[in-house]
Amino acid sequence: MNGIVKSSLFVFFQIYFLTVLCNCPSGWSRYEKSCYHVSRDSASWAEAMKMCEIHGSFLAGIETDAEDQYIKTLLGAQRHSTVYWVGGSDWDNEGEWKWEPHAIPFNFTNWHKGQPNNVGNYEHCLALHRVYHYEFADNNCHSPQHYLCEKPDTSSTETENLGK
C-alpha cells in the first residue's frame, strides 16, 4: 500500500509541475519562452497566418541558432509533410525579409544554398523544406503548405510579471 501511495504522489507531482512550468496547450511543444504547434492541414501563407491567429498565435519566427535547431528537430519528427510555412516574408519589399505580423527584420538567417531566389518573382514567403534540411527557402505564398505556429508560453509571462 505504501508503494502505491508513493507512486501516486510521484505521478501527481510530475503532472503538477509539468502543468505549472509549461502552460502550452495540449498538442503544442514548449521551447524556452514559446509554444509551437505543427499544423496537420495545409494552407497558403496568408491563410496559415490567419489560422495561427485564431489560436492566439502567429507563424513562427526563428531568431537564434538554438531555436532553429529546436525547430529542425520538431519538424524532422513529423511524418505528414515535407514543407512548412513560418512567419518570414519579403512581400512588402523584395529582399527585405521580416518576421510577420510585427514586421521585425531578420537578425538571424539560415538560408539554404542558392536561397532566396525568388523564382518567377513569386516567392515572397519563408518555408522550411525537408529536402533543404529545414534551412530557409523562399516559396510561392499561394502554395498550400503545412505551417508552424508560435505563441508565448503563459508561464514565462506570468513568471516575468511576478518579478516586476
UniProtKB/TrEMBL annotation:
SMART domains the UniProt entry points to: CLECT
Positions of the C-type lectin domain: 31-150
Origin species: Mytilus galloprovincialis
Signal peptide: 1-29
Keyword Signal: yes
Keyword Amino-acid biosynthesis on entry: no
Keywords, in A-Z order: Signal
Protein name, UniProt field: C-type lectin domain-containing protein
